[in-house]
What does this fold into?
Amino acid sequence: MNYTEEKKVALAAVTAAAQLCQRVQGEKGAQTLNKADTSPVTVADFGAQAVICQALAEAFPDDPVIGEEDAAMLGQPELVGVRTQIIQQVQKILPTASPQNVIDWINHGNGTVAPRYWTLDPIDGTKGFIRGDQYAIALALVEEGELKLGILACPAFPLENGTTGLIFLAIRGQGSVEIPLKGGTPKAIKVDNSANLSELCRIESVESVHSDRAFQTTLDRCLGLKSPAKQMDSLAKYGAIARGDAHLYTRIPLPQFKDKKENIWDHGPGVIIVEEAGGIVTDLDGKCLDFSLGAKLSNNRGILATNGTIHQQVLEAIRKQDYNRRNL
Ligand code: AMP
Ligand code: MG
It folds into this structure.
């Protein structure tokens, strides 16, 4: 299967969602709310989910979508102003949308895992979006537990020519490409497969509580990494590895959250982009990521993404450090 229709629909949908996000960012006064888990969510997160789910529901009505957001909280009477802002933003993209359509499209993202499904993070890195840093609109297609298509729209991604905005796209067996968000010719991308650890670049979250930095510092020393890690919010980190800007990314649960499981939408779209660019992504024990189980990667521990060349060496260093930590 060459996924031509899926690619066309996904590209158009994330491009429209990116426009919505950029417009919300440009209009001061768009509101931010806190979810039950205290993480922030904005008008743009809900609006982007509505726009993408509308496109997927129309083109592939039988495919469930497992998205990060749901519209339940928007029913609270005090959030009527936020609901209105979301509806107005979606109507700028889809002028005939009714208020109920918008709520229904957001809730279309409440699907569950099936033999074929999409997973969506309408804004990954919401904290980065609010700060004016990196964020990604992230969408992946999974069939029989295997990632088949991944797409990331990264409106703030810095380019060599001084402009910003890239889309990363991968289809299984067809490689990975980057496309300027403003439009242009897709360009094939490859990881930088250097094995010289002292010169390689690690990339990490801006938010220090999203991975165990104490474990990481010892790991860096053990691997002989010399330069300080680049910091970047969101799944854009996978794009940075896929185009050779960085070589290594870990997500190590903090000791106090050691049973924390990652969300499928926080990784799926980036994983296939790194793999199709020649890299490797596993969990911290070297196990393949299992996207067949539900909204969480419940059979995996943390994440390791590399340029491929150094993967076994990093896994071995993690194994040794886990052993030392257990036997302290
Ligand atoms: P990043 O920008 O790479 O730090 O990732 C942003 C993602 O981190 C969000 O989508 C959240 O799902 C996720 N996240 C939030 N809190 C935590 C946490 N304590 N540990 C790991 N990931 C988290
Ligand atoms: Mg996310």
